[in-house]
## 1
Amino acid sequence: MRHPTEGTLRRLLDEPAGVPDPDRAHVAECSQCLATLAATRRDADLVGAALATEGTSDVDAGWRRLTASLPTAAPAARPERIRPSRSRGFRRPAAAVLAFGVVLAGAGTAAANDWLQVFRTEEIAPLSLTTSDLVALPDLSAYGDVELTGDPDVHEVPDAATAAEESGLDVPEVADLPRGVAGEPTISVGGQLSATFTYSADRTAQAAAAAGETLPPPPPGLDGSSVRLVAGPGVAQVWSSESGLPALVVGRAVAPSAYSSGVPFETVRDHLLSLPGLPEDVAAQLRSFTADGSTLPIPVPADLATSSTADVDGAEATVLTGRDGAMAAVVWVSDGVVTAVAGSLDPDELLSVARDLG
């Protein structure tokens, strides 16, 4: 019999009841699997302790504790797992690529001195990124000013009724919990966020000069023009595993939309796609998206996950699967609302949950 995947071994820690009996019997008698399971348990303990926030939602503080606690190199005898270089390289560009995705994937025209909606999420598409892409990707502050407004105020609520009242969203109802997932979820609500990017020709020229390039003058009216991204509110239900990490997460949020002021939106998009710093393969993928301002790119680290599509109640969903089998997610959009089902389950189980949501 072949060895169970690392995802199956991880599931033995999180929800052992969900692991088939043949796999559990194999692990009990296999020294190689037992050694890997022990290493997986140590990693889980490390992550759980580092991300513990004493009842708060301070994810950034937890992330700092996690990265500070990671070793500088993995012992030679152990499989590769979380490496500090990859973790730090992913976290900073991740927010930047989401911002780039909305700014660069939308299209439309804007009336001078007024805000006009130019992007509304109607579908999502994977944006494949290598580790080098993530490290090389600049954030928007290299090309202008970014102002964040709104208060996420992520906090727990006692029940779904309260979550619906505070968020204005229909809270998804899970009809049947997958095998190995039990109990009541923790329910959290977050508010609306807004980010405004104002293009600066001077700052962009400085960034180009630092990269050893000279840019042509920006299109008329682009300097000082702005794009505003709005997303949320949202709600998430989390079923914990025995390790304390999520076994199942069901989330829903008002999908991102974007507004432009000053110049046609495609002018902003085309100009930013030509700037230094954005990896060419990323720019090429963004150029391939439909130009109707309706496709939201979802960053997918190519070396960590694969993507595919599936139908969820008539909507095309993106299915993300970790290459190690430890995590998966299903994400789709319907009527301006994005829904995600994720966890340490296999994709078929998550799709079953997604299709049965009430």
## 2
Amino acid sequence: MKNIAVIGCGGQGTWHCKQIMNSNVVTLAGTYDIDPKRMAAAKELGINLYESFEAVLGDEKVDAVVIAVPNDDHKELVIKALNAGKNVICEKPVEMSVSALDEMIDAANKSGKLFTVHQNRRFDVDYLAIKSIVESGEIGDVIRIESRIHGSRGIPSDWRCTKAQGGGMILDWGVHLIDQLLQIFKEKIVSVNCVTTNITGTEVDDGFRLDMMFENGKSAYVEVGTYNFIAMPRFYMQCKKGSALISDWREETEVALMTAWNEKDVLPVQTAAGITKTMAPRDEVTLKQYRVPRPESDVHDFYRNFCLALDGKADIMVTHAEVRRVMQVMEAAFASAEQGQTLKVNI
């Protein structure tokens, strides 16, 4: 069993503490937060408290630390922990620029310690369902995937509203959705176009729409909104032999498999302003429709992989190269939104 200490007792830090306390591969050494109220709340949960960050780093029993603090403090704490000989799991987004991330990676390489990022939404069952359909090839090669998350409550009224601390939806939810899609699309990204929204405030984006084009003509679309009172589908995927749809992250996947391209006799459809064959629906002769059950998922697999990687028995799940690629896309998205144009990239 590996001993883990958690730095930060906010929402995500407390989540980590509870997950570790229920884990069969790691144990919770304790936690530390600069906020006395959060420390008191952690104590009520029966969690051991450290008096300082330095006390955590000085505890020889601690194998690794989880950094779960506001984004602008990530680099400093991660580098200090690595230099103190601790392995590090950092919450996402790992930082706010590629250059800052590179400093962290350099510190990890020099220290010889393991440094990774908690991309927990690789365990979301909606994403896993789409990924499994792609990998099965059952509806052919991917043409385009659209990934959306819509809410209607704006941004939480804390540091996530502050630009200096890395607030906004690109860095909050975008980092997840981009990471998910880049686990599917391995081809080079050749262009990025992003539009941000500022409906509920002006300091940071409260939503965005991002298009990514790949070198082989495939495309991916990411949309996050916090002022949508009717949500659009969570996933929509176009493939060479059919389509897949997840209407809501709690629902099963709907799949339509094209079994034949042509129909001998297509009946025209009467619309309000005329008839159409082009948009006429298909029938069971050329289309097979079915649902795919939600796959199983276990978030504890993240820590299981981390422990195996520490022992040299597995490759780390979230690599530096993957984290850096996502960071490059987010930087390009910000630049595209600021310039109001599509950017040519090589990511």
## 3
Amino acid sequence: MCSTQNMHTHHKLDNPVWEALTTEDKRFNIGTPTPAYLPEDVSPFVGMEHWDEKNLASMDSLLPAGRSFSVMIAGEVRIPPTFDILFTTPLYQMICTSLQPIAQAGASIQDLGEADVPAMLALTALTKPGPFLQRTIDFGNYVGIFNNGALVAMAGERLHLRGYTEVSAVCTHPDHLGKGFAAQLMTYACERILKQGNIPFLHVKTDNLRAIRKYEQLGFTKRADFYFAVVKKRA
């Protein structure tokens, strides 16, 4: 478990989806303040200020039926019985207040744009770093490494809160693991976030030990235990 003191120091990170969709990523919010959610081709996340019985009831009445949504929150949520839980897994939220750059792989890092979306969709479908859709790139600042013209590693930003930026979609093609590409991209992304005066954070499955070790080497520390679920409102 993560320390209570560390959780309270950066308390707005306990509810990052709602915080982002009511502040820095407000332009994406097509819901009300509660529930807040994004266009289906950008991200499946849904956020609410308070995950209590009253607001869960409003989530049930205000979210469109037939669409799946992702819940990501510190602690655990009692999902209403009108939703099917399609998938759930525990996460760690990790935060980096002091970056420790790892020796660079020396690969060329390139900004990724609309023309790269098919390659990004293919790489994330293969490596499954988390939800990545046709317009997820709209969150901004995605970068990648190419090998013989093929995208083999990438990383980018997702949720933006006041003072914090989430690093996301960190992935490497299985044929190119162990070359230091992920560490190089993470260092690049985190340095850019820190230069903007923000603190990098991320979410990782608790059983992804390889990634957790790499993030810890970069200076990330576990901040909180998170609940993640993919839910779908019954038609």
## 4
Amino acid sequence: MKVLVTGGAGYIGSVTAKALEVAGHTPVILDSLLTGPHVFVRDRIFYEGDIADRALLARIVEEHPDLDATIHMAARIIVPESVEQPYEYYRDNVAKSLELFDQLQQLGKPRVLFSSSASLYAPKEGFEVVEADPLAPNSPYARTKHMMEQVLQDMAVATDLRAIILRYFNPIGSDPDLESGIYAKEPSHVLGQLVMAARGQKDAFTITGVEHPTRDGTGIRDYIHVWDVAQAHVRAVEQFDQVLAAVGEPSVVINLGTGDGTTVRELVAAFENVFGSQVPIKEAPPRPGDAIGAYANVDRATELLDWRASLSLEDAIASALAWGEKRQEILGYE
């Protein structure tokens, strides 16, 4: 199969492109390189450009008429930045995605896998969420994801566009071959921050929010190895039509997580266990837009994709630490 991957030079996009290749498929990368580094593209088929460029999309389909599906990952993703720059987030994540979806449908390429987010879920007692639970996105970033889910669901009813919406929980770790991983010089992701503190690149790791109604007061998340997330995309691409046939709908939402909740303090303890020494810690109030958190009920992913996360939290931490040692060689900076 041949699969268009928007945002394929990014963190999750590049790892998913690798997983597609390992499974015998051919990724075609479309990325503006606004954030993702060109080196992550490697020797893959690559188009540098904007997802809203209809002429470019037409050229890609003309040159690759055998495209089977599109995995749409291109997006702005930093929650505090979305609070400060809502226009840029709605423009890039919503308006441009609308153009992409309409053009794909018009070009006869109606299968779309969409990267959504667990940040959509409303707070829930017990923190385990199923796909039908109430949503209450509390940042511009999360609201862009919610809007695009609604867009896809409405377009799937009205046209021959078909959508599998994957709600990611908290991907961590790196490509198993250490060819790509977190690339930001100062990652906003919690594990990237922990690695920096452990390696002395930051004075301390900051726990943002210590009075949440969780078992230890810190936020709760479902940390899933990015390679497991990538494998789920491969399964969804390979079984796209069967998945939608099984639910009898033109679109479906599927949680991607491990099925276990880990608090920030528990993550720090697991990290220190893998790292072999303590990490300096300080505490601060929650950041704008931060959610208390949730973890995934993954029954639907198991049923429809025959998929479950196979790698542990410790595996992901070890992977992130190994990438922390390797990334200067690949990216040219610590």
